[in-house]
Amino acid sequence: MNEKKLMNQQIGNNGENVAASYLLQKGYTVIERNWRFKHCEIDIIASKENKLHIIEVKTRTNKKFGNPEESVGEKKMNTLKKGAEEYLFQHQQWQQIQFDVVAIKMNRETIEEIFLIEDVFF
Known about the structure:
By secondary structure, the chain is α+β, with helices and mostly antiparallel strands. The protein has helices at about 5-25, 75-90, and strands at about 30-35, 40-50, 50-60, 95-105, 110-115. It has a single domain, classed as 3-Layer(aba) Sandwich (Trna Endonuclease, Chain: A, domain 1). It has a 5-stranded mixed β-sheet with strand order 1-2-3-4-5.
């Protein structure tokens, strides 16, 4: 694996750890992290108040490629939808579902900004 890809993976993993802690502080229960089915990956699956939350985590360390949330496009949302459909098929107890994004801006190991964008799809 090349150095740049490894560094991006590390940034992503750090962001997902930060996001999971942030969600726990906000009263969510983290059910799954990095849940995979075929070509679909869901960063965090959580619950709060009897609702299943499918959460995409985006972390940026600079503004070169824009804000983190701007990188969640139609293709990514379609992949999340396919993954969520399979998860719901396997876990049929969930009646309500919501798609969210946790956007994180970091400077090295320091969190500059973190916020939750709720109900981004459907």
